[in-house]
Design brief:
- It is a single chain.
- The chain is an alpha/beta fold and 300 residues long.
- The protein is built from ten helices and 13 strands.
- An eight-stranded parallel β-barrel has the order 1-2-4-5-6-7-8-12, surrounded by five helices.
- The longest helix is centred in the C-terminal third of the chain and has 15 residues.
- 36% of the residues are buried.
Length: 300
């Protein structure tokens, strides 16, 4: 019987111990300047320390190299992937085809995981990338549960990953929108890399996290997607990995979330109990079930 692995996103190296004890099987770090939209980033010089900690706590080490790279950044990317190979990193997440090309050159295609955010929505695309020999594909969060199950039926589900918990990317622009807004107001203040900012649409009573870095501006969903009720269905479909994304969460908020999903997969609690416990722990958090039961577009 399949049991989905739990992957989560630490904010620092010290998180690895507590996340492993909570039930995490793998951790995913960002590494500047190669990563975008990560809960926690480490420097290149810290990668060996991350590997040592992951080995000590028996969790897989994953690194995000998921930004889009310009031509002049390719030599630096190649050196970074050489280092990842040398450290024997378990998985490397990517969205730029340059990573795949270098992965083939270095013989580490089997460590690559394709995550192009919104693009993986059908089994033909999934099978194309799996046919390149990569390790896994991360399905888009904008598809329904029925669509996920259809893809799993037409692909190798043991090579699929689902993001089951966390804020979803709603919009991305390469423009520095917050910086431009400050200039428009005539205010000399930098809002880059501040994780406590939100934006509210005039027609909605929802506050959406917004974040600007050197890659542009990222806006996220107002609600946190949770998948307690869908866990058993996704697990029975053979999905390999379930990700708990901790971006915009305090580090101590993620440990109990991992524990709830771990208890759920070992059938120690029901989906209903897991949801009630989550709401009890985080009464102020806005949550929903994402697009599992609703399409992203409707016909009038």
């Amino acid at each position: 019987m399949n049991t989905m692995l739990i992957l989560t996103t630490p904010t620092c190296i010290e998180d690895i111990d507590k996340m492993a004890k909570a039930g995490a099987d793998a951790v995913l770090f960002g590494c500047e300047p190669f990563s975008v939209r990560c809960a926690g980033n480490v420097s290149v010089s810290q990668l060996a320390e991350v590997k040592k900690a992951c080995t000590a706590h028996q969790v897989e080490m994953s690194i995000a190299a998921n930004r889009l790279f310009s031509e002049e950044q390719l030599p630096q990317l190649y050196e970074f992937l050489c280092l990842c190979k040398e450290l024997d990193v378990d998985s490397i997440y990517f969205s730029d085809e340059a990573v795949l090309a270098y992965g083939q050159k270095l013989g580490i295609v089997n460590k690559l995981i394709y995550q192009p955010d919104t693009l993986m929505t059908n089994h033909n695309d999934v099978n194309f990338y799996l046919g390149e020999g990569i390790k896994r594909v991360v399905l888009a969060r904008e598809i329904t549960l029925d669509e996920i199950l259809t893809i799993a039926n037409h692909c190798a589900p043991q090579r699929l990953e689902i993001i089951v918990h966390g804020y979803s990317v709603a919009m991305y622009s390469k423009r520095p929108l917050l910086t431009n807004y400050m200039k428009f107001l005539g205010v000399d203040r930098s809002l880059q890399k501040q994780m406590n900012l939100t934006i509210e649409e005039a027609t909605r009573n929802e506050r959406m996290p917004i974040y600007e870095d050197e890659n542009g501006t990222h806006i996220f969903s107002a609600a946190i997607q949770q998948s307690f009720a869908q866990w058993e269905i996704l697990n029975d479909a053979g999905i390999h990995t379930a990700r708990i994304d901790g971006i915009f969460h305090r580090r101590e908020e993620i440990y109990p979330v991992i524990e709830l999903y771990d208890q759920l997969r070992h059938k120690k609690i029901s989906a209903k109990t897991a949801l009630l416990e989550y709401e009890k722990c985080f009464p102020d958090k806005l949550i929903d079930s994402g697009f599992y039961n609703r399409a992203t577009s409707t016909k009038k």
